[in-house]
Amino acid sequence: MHPKAKSLGQGALTVALCATLVNAFAGGDAKRGEYLAKAAGCVGCHTEEKKDAVPFAGGRALKTPFGTFYGPNITPHPQAGIGRWAEADFMRAMREGKRPDGKNYFPAFPYPSFTKITDRDLRDLWAYLRALPPSARANQEHDLWFIFGWRSLVTFWKWFFFTPGPFVDIPGLTDIANRGAYLVQALGHCGECRPDSPRTATSPQRRWAK
User: Which of 126, 133, 135, 187 could form a disulfide with 57 if both were Cys (CB 3.0 to 4.6 A apart)?
Assistant: First the structure.
């Protein structure tokens, strides 16, 4: 083979391998996403509270002073779940608290904490959710009191109490301590339910569940 052709062939192979690696990384790691889903407790809100319930198929009731919220189906079913979502839709939901149609999610979905999840972790979570068996279980409408069901009002709540963006290391903490802070503040969303960060009429750390 001519040296120049050989060189070009090796160059093309290198580019192809790099592209494959980049695409694999961009696509996310489903196995790692499974670990992250467990750390975030996703199954707790997205699985019906009954025997033999399908994991992540939705239906868990969350009773609050504002009414009852029902966890949605997040399996990749094209009608009942999130099978028609693009990765960008998932990123926007987690980072900005918005549905694919642009409307607000209620902050019973803890996106004020999930917004702090890193892009890499979000991609891995997305890869894991896409790998789940699809379930045709239909979502239930939230049963909320009067104006609390108006998604447009959440916009005003966001103005005062929601700051989107990934977790930033806390100065002065070790790498291990910052990893713990990330797990607590972002994936674990511990502040959403802890009694020392109560949900009040004006607090950004609102506790929706009784």
Answer: 135
